Fold this protein.
Amino acid sequence: MIYNKIDDVQAFLKSQKIKNKSIGFVPTMGALHQGHISLVEAAKKNNDIVVVSIFVNPIQFNNPDDLKKYPRTLEEDSIMLKEAHCDLIFYPTVEEMYPEEAIKTYDFGELEKVMEGAFRPGHFNGVAVVVKKLFDIIGANNAYFGKKDFQQLAVIRKLVELEKIPINIIACPTEREADGLAMSSRNRRLTPKERPQAAEIFKALTYVKNQRAQYSPQELEKKALEFLAKDFKAEYFQIVDGYSLQNISSWDDTNYPVACVAAHLGSVRLIDNLELL
Ligand code: PAF
């Protein structure tokens, strides 16, 4: 079932909630891959009804070209979701999601000042606005997000806390290709030459994880950036505390170190991260 209208989605879900059915929700921007499907599968395991939204949210793109080039593949997405036994696809228009109204500004403090927040001004506010709207529309019990967007996950947890939204946020592991490249809708824009090069990001992350005992966080950040410089224009490679997302200067600063990276390969901007536990 594909619904475009908020009223239709809500009418259907109301009829399910009356029967005490639990709702699992997977928000997406479409161009689905196995990473998204693993979220649907996780939702399917623990909920009676699974809803997936497909909405390329214009207000989270700080680069108009990126928005224009974002892949839109509704037909393939619907087939994949049917195979994964998704019960309802919510596929609204921009007008349906954003009738004329003021767009709220959130304050996520230090969480949004680093990494993606620093390089993509306004991005997390756009994500928070749409996710809050989607949560309000669906009224799910559980929502599923991939750890690939590590900072997004932290911002959404903060949003739920700030807005006191009654929903459980479930973090799911990053799905990877055989060579380690994190699955992403943007991967399909890599050229045949770039595609194998893209896996070097995972090599850098794995190297850092394996060398943790030998070097300081700063030394490893430097080595990773040097390694990536061959093929990529890296924006950042940072080892942070996985809760606050702030840089650590020594391994003793955290019990949850995570390496996070964003780098351009040709015209494609890739992000990834690895828990260094
Ligand atoms: O991760 C994404 O695909 C998007 O940021 C989300 C959460 C669907 C909001 O548009």
